[in-house]
Amino acid sequence: MSDTTDIPEDDITLAAEYALGLLEPDEASHFAERLRNEPQLRAHLENWESSFAELTQDIAPVKPRARVKKALRRRLFGQAAKPRRGRAFWGFAAGLATALVVLMLLPMERIPPTIAPLVTEIAAEDGAFVLRAGWHPDTGQVIVQRIAGSIPSDRARELWLIAEGAPAPVSLGLLERAETTELVVPQALHGQIAGATLAVSDEPPGGSLTGAPTGDVLAVGQVPQS
Amino acid sequence: MTGRDGIEALIAETALGNADAFSTLYDKTSSKLFGVCLSVLGHRGESEEVLQEVFISVWQNAGRYAVTGHSPMTWLITIARNRAIDRLRARKSRPAVSVELPEMPDKAPTPEGVAIARSEAARIQHCFEQLEQVSAAAVRGAYLEGQSYKELAARFNVPLNTMRTWLRRSLLALRECLNP
What we know:
The complex is a heterodimer. Chain A is α+β, with helices and mostly antiparallel strands. Helices cover 25% and strands 23% of the residues of chain A. Chain A has a 4-stranded antiparallel β-sheet, with no helix packed on it. A 4-stranded antiparallel β-sheet of chain A has the order 5-4-7-8, with no helix packed on it. In chain B, 73% of the residues lie in helices and 0% in strands. By secondary structure, chain B is mainly α. Chain B is globular, with a radius of gyration of 18 Å. Chains A and B meet through helix 1, helix 3, helix 4 and strand 8 of A and helix 1, helix 2, helix 3, helix 4 and helix 5 of B.
């Protein structure tokens, strides 16, 4: 279990009350704010959440009607009954065997919407490959800086956009060997970038020939909502 | 049956946008989560809506799972319980319009494949059993029914501050038992 020795008693009960939903709205907001900066407080909250979840132990599973899953698919993936499968959707059978991926990082900066770019870090699990990507809505560009790692001379790196509710990843283009890549994003995708997932895959020179990722997914990051 | 590792892998795949894995994750976990929603809301239509919201949240936030310390079912159950309680509270603050009859699930043990790790579960159950009756009921009332301190105080017929003090003392004792 996590180290608990230095937490003042009030924080222990506060975390439990937050997990139980017993705090007043302003107290809850204040607590949520603290969570962002205090990892030990977050660990305490997670301990409580884990313990309280045990209270659902005796709740019997109940199979929901089939229509619920259908409605969910429609909401997430549009009109198609099932998402497209014909084309090795992520090439994942091959891709994830090597599992270099790590998931989602918090946004680098919390900045107000409208003018400033949305910035995210895209990184591999071992930190060997790290990018910083910024979405600039005013110029319609995603600007990618390679912070760590390099691109082998016989392979390419392709950046993909997986928007919320999109059935398949969309290529934003290849990363340059230079430190900075400026990618122009088609107008039709501008509304989908905020809150979307960005991923980098390993591809043959010139990029994927199929319109979908074919190689390993090397790194993933999530664009903040605002 | 899919053990913890299986569910975890499905969440990881979902985080990469793998819709097939997400579909399988739904198939394997939706019954338990629907049971939780029904238990809180007692209303099938609302529970179905909340279940969708839960899985939309799972789709969008699967990438965040890895940075929590949670077991996969704890993470999923926490999302489901929180959403259901939010909906319950929203319902309390507006006049009831639906006349659908409530459906309460039976109390029965969960299948092995989706249970939280057995030894940890036993320890947690033991610690809950050590709580005083009122405190145990208050914790359940808050967690499973979204009761506020005000409602709990009324329920046990004590002043608000007394309810707070009792519960906080019990939470500290519970914590001592869980992490000796």
